[in-house]
Amino acid sequence: MQTENNAGLTIAGKIYRSRLLVGSGKYQDLEQTRLATEASGAEIITVAIRRVNIGQDPNAPSLLDVVPPSKYTILPNSAGCYNAEDAVYTLQLGRELLGGHKLCKLEVLGDEKTLFPNMPETLKAAKTLVNDGFDVMVYCSDDPIQARMLEDIGCVAVMPLASLIGSGMGILNPWNLSLIIQQAKVPVLVDAGVGTASDAAIAMELGCDGVLMNTAIAGAQDPLRMARAMGLAVEAGREAFLAGRIARKFAASASSPMAGRIA
Questions:
Q1: How confident is the model at residue 262, as a pLDDT?
Q2: Which end of the chain is more exposed for a tag (fewer CB within 10 A), N or C?
Q3: Rounded Cα distance, 93 and 59, in Å
Q4: Residue 29 confidence (pLDDT) above 60
Q5: Do 216 and 195 contact (CB within 8 A), yes or no?
Q6: b vs e for 54-71, b when ≥16 Cβ sit within 10 Å of the residue's Cβ?
Q7: What are phi and psi of 51, to 5 degrees?
Q8: Verdict on whether the full-model pTM lies above 0.85
Q9: Average pLDDT over the chain, rounded to whole?
């Protein structure tokens, strides 16, 4: 349901009906990728340029055969990069493969164990990419200061992690996310750590503009059913945020008023 305050998610000037963004890795095959993507209702699909074929190998099946750019916004990302130089090169390759596509997701990782973002290298890469004409969505720590610095550089969206990539631990620090949301003038999307539908709903209830996930869907026992659940959870969380929850209080409050009651 669209309302005046819920007209869609705007990224780099384009409006999307769905606030769920999904990844394209870890599925059994390309057919399952296609079916899960359709079931999720997502319109933005992130692609790891270093791991997924979108034209790098003309002799191999291409992801674009099942999630075509005519139907979806392809979001190339620099997953697997550990310094700014590699990340910039990878995203420039993605732009070339996609015919000048400017929208990208920047990831610069700190180490292979935690996959936590390397923020100094992320900031460095973000400056280079913005100056090169990219519309940069950026995976980052849940540090409000770092998020503001990325916004000041010119990133079109900040994407703080909820918890470690692929961990399924959910949102471990809602207070930091709330601080980022309160100050941001660009979309804030939770990226990494979502495990199930309630995690996605909580992110949206906090006021996030969207949620990006991959493992939570692809790693589920039934990816298609989980994809549908995640789409519904994001919608429900957004509606709850716009509706405004009741205040928490340390006292009971009867559902039926006392005034005018029958003896």
A1: 66
A2: C
A3: 18
A4: yes
A5: yes
A6: beeeeeeebbbebbeeee
A7: -125, -20
A8: yes
A9: 93
Q: pLDDT (tens digit, 9 = 90+) per residue, 159-206?
A: 999 999 999 999 999 999 999 999 999 999 999 999 999 999 999 999
- With cut-offs at 50, 70 and 90, classify the pLDDT of residue 1: very low
CA distance linking residue 183 with residue 151, whole number of Å: 10
CA distance 41 to 96: 27
Write the pLDDT tens digit of every residue in 193-249.
999 999 999 999 999 999 999 999 999 999 999 999 999 999 999 999 999 998 888
Alpha-carbon gap, residue 69 to 78, rounded angstroms: 19
Catalytic residue check, 185: no
First to last CA, the chain: 42
**Contact, 129 vs 139, CB < 8 A?**
no
CA-based nearest residue to 128, from 91, 88, 100, 93: 88
Which of 87, 13, 35, 25 minimizes the C-alpha distance to 227? 35
CA distances from 71 to 34, 42, 99, 158, 223 (A): 12, 10, 16, 24, 21
Of 135, 177, 178, the closest CA to residue 153 belongs to 135
Q: Which of 26, 71, 105, 124 is the catalytic position? A: 105
